[in-house]
Amino acid sequence: MPTSRLIASTVLSLAVLAALPPAMAGAAPKATPQAAGAFSNAELARLKKAAQRVTILRDKWGIPHVFGKTDADAVFGMVFAQAEDDFNRVERNYINAMGRLAEVEGEKEIWRDLRMKLYIDPADMKAKYTASPAWLQKLMNAWADGMNWYLASHPQVKPKLLTRFEPWMALSFSEGSIGGDIESINLKQLEAFYGKRPAPALAMADPGKGFDKEPQGSNGFAIAPRRTAGKHALLMINPHTSFYFRPEVHMVSEEGLNAYGAVTWGQFFIYQGFNERLGWMHTSGGGDVIDEYLETVNEREGKFFYKYGNEERAMRSKTIVLPYRTADGMASRSVTAYFTHHGPVIREEGGKWVSVKMMDDPVHALEQSYGRTKARDYAAFLKVMDLRTNSSNNTVYADADGNIAYFHGNFVPRRDPRFDWTHPVDGSDPATEWKGLHEVKETITVFNPKSGYISNTNNWPCTGFGASSPDCAAYPKYMWSLPQNARGIHAERVLHDAQNLSLEGLIGKAYDPYLTAFEPLLPALLKDWDALPQGDALKTRLAEQVALLRAWDLRWAVDSVPTSLAVYWGQEMVKEAATRARAQQVPVVDFIQTRLGAAERLDALSRASDKLQADFGSWKTPWGEINRFQRPSGEVELHYDDSKASIPVAFTSANWGSLASFGMTAKQTTKRIYGDRGNSFVAAVEFGPRVRARSILAGGESGDPKSPHFMDQAEMYSRGQFKDVLFYKEDIEKQLERKYHPGQ
């Protein structure tokens, strides 16, 4: 059992009370172990002194604007404010990042924990922390101090596991993407290998990149001054993540830090955002940067060896202990993990072991993640990009000098292009080794395109810049991994001829209601129906539906019946085609657009009509009656309920080409669709002499249902209506809700 579980509950001592702010003295009866057992009086006094150097200004939306003398002060206050808003999500992110989720959730999570522990070892992270630059150590120290001061000054809070944060822990979660590289390792295959269970069929265990799921990704747009009304560069920040994945934060110091935007819960850098001089937006899906190796393994006297060139090398092994919670307390399981020089072994395939190689450089990753927030111009930003540790994302950039830029990926290993890197390669062949990293200038980049605009929607980099789009054929195939998508086609259209764009005009483009995915589908359906003979029962049954769809302008709206019918029709086709799409490694929307027959399309429309009729009493139900926003609780896993209040939302899943995305990933137990992924934090920024920005959050800043900021942005969110960002202190103070030092 972890030490934290053994610390007995106790009442705060008088000495500890003296170290806390006066307002906390009355909280003594609610004291928990971390308040008295984890922190000494001297430590509490030090933390209180650090808190006095930080001021948090909460505006009328509850957004924390954190001001500190140093960057470390700002980090202290910024993570403290996050913990105030949703400590549960902060703690859970680090429990998961360190491979300790089973200690909270039970044995079912041990394989997820093993996956993390193949890379995250506390001893290794502590050594990396010790060897990291002094400036970064200061920030990690401040991060831990801010979290620990939150626990000490909030004795009513009961952590699920982490009663003390240590500076090295920041290295376990150094990249803010929604799906880190480690998560690409398939858990069922990992369990099959190390749990000695039958391996699942590969096609079913790993359906690929979003074949029939709600898309994970984002939209990023940058507009050059010559296309804007104010002659200033514009940036659209539109991540499509799970809702409540990132709050909105502002952090300022007297050392040149002044960053605003979205932060992944618990991290101390703005992940997607801007400062007074420039802004950055990340979209998922750059190059192919994770590779698998087929290892030829032999066993001799209980030891394993693998072939490499003309030699055999000893397989490195490591015992990993996996504690997990049970109804009777704690238990544990030990696994012997194996490693080649490529990386950990993660599964078996065709009689060979499969190892995986990916970026594993948390110190430089954290340096890059934080460093971009302080860049003042393109040259400084490019210098940060030269660290080359942003492995899972593209970057869309704009600045106050009028520059716009795009980086397709950042960490790109140099490899022999003769090999197909989308499949496992022969680990025994030295020719398959990585040969260092491509320099940034060798990757697919765009700087100030003549077209005057940049867009990326998790699609290829071959379009999205008009006539200035890169020639993908000039680069190794591994530099881009995803195809074009319906959003990419849509974005190119709305930006291609855009002129005199204002900030509000850019928001309008980002919420354009057209659904490009139905362009090839609807004409095919109409042709199918027209071809049915007169008197055919199906032709008669679908006549009214087809007439509505024939007249539809392919635009979503809350009062649109064709939107409901088309989306349900599309969903039925996806269900029908998903297995075949997986088997052929084709995105399912592409599959239904190009490979379904007339009977399948018509039958899907019939089933869609029946489902709408059964669930809502009529297939003529407007989209806003079906597609809803609901935030029933502050829990990470939400359970939706048709009997509870909800708000209509017009925009649809990104699968159908909607630039504004609203989709459901939770298992649907309701009749209505309740979005939980898509537009979450969205911001539009204009880089004039004074930065002007507008933003919106799904729901609100706080994860506490009792907070006025739990749902105060929900109605605006559902309408695509943005609030003004309060970036300058004088503006914040005019709309100030509360001003305080952490812990007051």
**What is the share of helical residues?**
25-40%
Q: What is the beta-strand fraction?
A: 15-25%
The termini sit apart by 34 Å
User: For the residues shown, what is the average pLDDT?
Assistant: 92
Q: Please state the overall shape, judged from the principal axes of the Cα atoms.
A: globular
Radius of gyration: 27 Å
Task: Please describe the biggest sheet, giving its number of strands, its sense, and whether it closes into a barrel.
Answer: 10 strands, mixed
Low-confidence stretches: 1-37, 202-212
Tell me the total number of β-strands.
30
Question: What structural category arises from helix and sheet content?
Answer: alpha+beta
Strand order of the largest sheet: 20-18-17-8-7-6-5-2-1-30
DSSP helical segment count:
24
The oligomeric status of these chains comes to: single chain
Give a summary of the structure in a few sentences.
This protein has 744 residues and is α+β, with helices and mostly antiparallel strands.
Helix-strand layout with pairing:
Blueprint: H1 3-6, H2 14-19, H3 33-37, H4 41-51, E1 54-59, E2 64-68, H5 71-97, H6 102-105, H7 110-117, H8 122-131, H9 134-153, H10 187-194, H11 202-205, E3 217-223, E4 234-242, E5 248-253, E6 258-262, E7 272-274, E8 278-284, E9 291-295, E10 297-300, E11 303-308, E12 311-314, E13 316-326, E14 329-339, E15 345-349, E16 352-357, H12 362-371, H13 378-385, E17 393-399, E18 404-407, E19 425-426, E20 445-447, E21 453-456, H14 486-496, H15 503-510, H16 518-531, H17 537-541, H18 543-551, H19 561-583, H20 588-594, H21 598-616, H22 623-626, E22 627-629, E23 647-648, E24 662-663, E25 673-674, E26 677-679, E27 681-687, E28 691-697, H23 714-719, E29 723-724, H24 729-734, E30 736-740
Parallel strand pairs: 2-5, 9-19, 22-25
Antiparallel strand pairs: 1-2, 1-30, 3-4, 3-21, 4-26, 4-27, 5-6, 6-7, 7-8, 8-17, 9-16, 10-11, 11-12, 13-14, 15-16, 17-18, 18-20, 22-23, 24-26, 27-28, 28-29
Helix pairs in contact: 4-9, 5-9, 16-18, 16-21, 19-20, 19-21
